[in-house]
Design a protein that fits this description.
Length: 718
Amino acid sequence: MEEKEAAKRLRELRGEIRKHDRLYYEEAAPVINDREYDRLYRELVDLEKQFPDLVTPDSPTQRVGGKPLEAFAQIQHRVPMLSLDNTYSEGEVANFYKRITRLLPNEKIPVVIEPKVDGVAVSLLYENGRLRHAATRGDGFVGDDITQNIKTIRSIPERLRGAAPKLFEARGEVYMDKHGFEKLNEERRKAGLPLFANTRNAAAGSLKHLDPSIVAKRPLGIVFYGTGGTEGVDVDLHSEIFGLFKKVGLPTSERWWLAKSVDEILNAIHELDRLRHNFVYQTDGAVVKVDSFQQREGLGFTAKSPRWAIAYKYAAERVETRLNDIIIQVGRTGILTPVAVLEPVLVSGSTVGRATLHNEDEIKRKDIRIGDTVVIEKAGEVIPAVIEVVKSKRPRGATPFNFSKHVHGKCPVCGEPIRRDPQFVAWRCENLHCPAQTTRRVEFFAARGALDIEAVGGIVADKLVERGLVREPLDLFELKVEQLAKLNLGTEEAPRVFGEKNATKAIHAIDRARTLPLSRWLFALAIPDVGKTTATQLARFHDDIEDVAHSQLLRDVLNYREKREQKQNATEIADRLIQAGFAKRSKSKAEKDGIVTEVGPVVAESVLNFFASMTGKKILRRLKELGIQPKSEKVSMKKAAELPLAGKTFVLTGTLPSITREEATEKIEALGGHVSSSVSKKTDYVLAGTDPGSKFDKAKQLSVRIIDEAEFRKLLAR
């Protein structure tokens, strides 16, 4: 075929494939089957390989993604992308409508009700009909440039149909197809890869992938629901946008309702609840928006949300299923956790076959028995939970569950004896060389919040332990690229090699971990009772790990407790701890003349015992041999008091738009602040993201100041 003839055929093929994409993705009315579509696509691929100079940027073949990105650039939204206020109460929906009618008296206020897609909010900018860029919500003002990844989604046109507006910023929600999600997880299960928790997490993880070619393989779609900045768009009502989207070729909600009263709004919400389970995407609620843009301007905004919209979230879905068995998993610290093996059942958009039972006491409290019919709840959470037992359906002969007898008093992984830890109402395997503990400890050691060596998590950690390359976490620092590159992540029958490229990245991450601060190392070592906050507190008052291992401060904490318990004079020890900044005078009347220390006696004893044990001594010795000396984060009392957030207590809840909770915690603690797990009158700020939990409600109840990520960033900047 000559080039002129090839160019003509390429135009025909691209036009035909675009037509079939439109019929399939936008109109749900395909006219050819998958095999015929694949034949056309293969012909296009082959012809473009034969004539590479004729490949165009907007060819359907270019949707498979380009080269991996180094990092995401930042894009500023022309109009801020604000989050909506959420509610689970129909009464609050009614109050919302009453409130807007009070703000705009003597006006009829129609509202639109549409599905709340459980995905990732994005903004696409079209200029003169061509896609210029796409961005995540980010902090509402600036988001990540995900243009290359968005282009891999076939339902998104690179060029709008018809006479396109000069400027068109379209807002939408990227989702993962429910059936595609199940198929993807099944493929990952067979490959021995970690499973995605839910469709939203899978979509978010896909969009944030630096390799567009991988994103192209994910079953992603999009629903457009609104606009940002526009030029040349003559629309006064939100209800007119749905027709506009279809006209220019952008997929939008298949169902929406217009309502003019509270009753009509609630009827629409109920009807949507009946229909939404048949949608290809996951939904978790209904969005109610004022229809008129002019009325929206009159209603305005609060600090973080528009007054003219609210998101109603449906109650968590609960389903009944049979509990076929209870298996025991072993965690990184040796804790044995019971897990329910269920008759697989569809709940909240995904098939559930297992659910957490937490611990032995929880099983006793709910009287859960093998063979019971149980009620489980998922509600978008990562791990579903057993809520209650349907005792009227209990089979005859079902006996109470006996944890110790179930595992014959031994660890199900290594066979060594187990004991019940009374403090943590849990059973524990005390064999520190238990393979299950080794794998989990390696995963924990390498986790993002610890030493951030994510390349050796999951299946890689399993295989490193299984192949004998790693017997304890510090063995990672003696790995070579050649060893990792040859690591088989599959089976002998179906090998899957880690590869030199991945191995090189992993070794770089391991080398970088050598220089991480003391707090990260103390957390990564999985010392019992030492979480992230405690690790940070310890690191601030000690020079290095050796200093922590033989800490006079921690010994003083124990000696102080002992003297107080024996009603002896502990003034000298108290004064020493206060002078070091490790304690302050107690304000409690019950603790007259007492002190409050940075860490309590339980933590102090746990840390000292850990480093005095054979395991702890070996860790200190290995660190010296490896030449690893984590940097001190010790601060003087004066310097600590001068830090901008000194004395301020934060509580985090919900999902933040552009940073993780771990990153937010690090920023707070670096500036002298403290992060607590619970809200009280002493809390200064509650940093709330999307889907906040009960902490958000408690903060409102106690009139604690609630800030979003944008306000948090301003606070840090100040």
